[in-house]
Amino acid sequence: MIVRFFSIVLGLLLSLSSPVVADEMRLAVTTSFHNSGLAGVLLPEIKKDLGLNVRLLVVGTGQALKLGRQGDVDAVLVHSRKAEEAFITNGYSKYRREIMYNDFVFIGPIVDNAKIKEKKTAVEVLKAVSASQQIFVSRGDDSGTHRKELSLWKAAKLKPETFSSSWYRASGSGMGATLNMASAMDGYVFADRASWLNFGNKRGLRILFSDDPALFNQYAYLPISATKHSHIKVTASKKLEHWLTGQKGQALIAGYKLSGEQLFVPNAKN
Q: Which of 91, 96, 228, 265 keeps 20 to 30 A from 67, CA to CA?
């Protein structure tokens, strides 16, 4: 009886002295979000405030949504509204929650042979690149950025699948690798502004065109439906959503700057 008593006491003491193990959830995010560096600001604060370890799976939007469909993550943070709405229609999430936005930009060599800096719209930019056949590096990976690029080619009534590989190159990789490829080739590239600002290998490239409303880039959070996948960590996912859309999360997003330039604009609605 005495042995049993001391065993219980010892067990209680060990449980009290053991460190609290944080909860964990898996979040699929885009390479453009990750390359911006914002995750490095948000994740430590999320862990401190919520006791939640957010494990990031960094992929393109298409792959992020695939992970969601398979139930391999608890939520996704992506930027391709049409794909997000199809995801909801098919029952993989009940809603999308807008978190923040930035914009896409066209980047190219200082010697702008395609003369895109002179253009007025994104469609005109792509027409100029196609006409000049200057090297253009595409993501080519079914990411949100790639899907946006394809929608702009469509608006320009041009078909990338018919372009010569002598000038239209697909990296098949994330934003950082694609920017590196464009930098090495002194080519044009379509990217999100945040990834570009945080990119170290700019060499002779610079932003040549921006500020067309067509280049708006909205990020949204989609919790995976527990109806589709009963093992999803609904509580943890909901906590993260509330934090990202709450006062602190939105303030940290607004305050994240590089070289004095704000990378994202928070726009969550409560």
A: 265
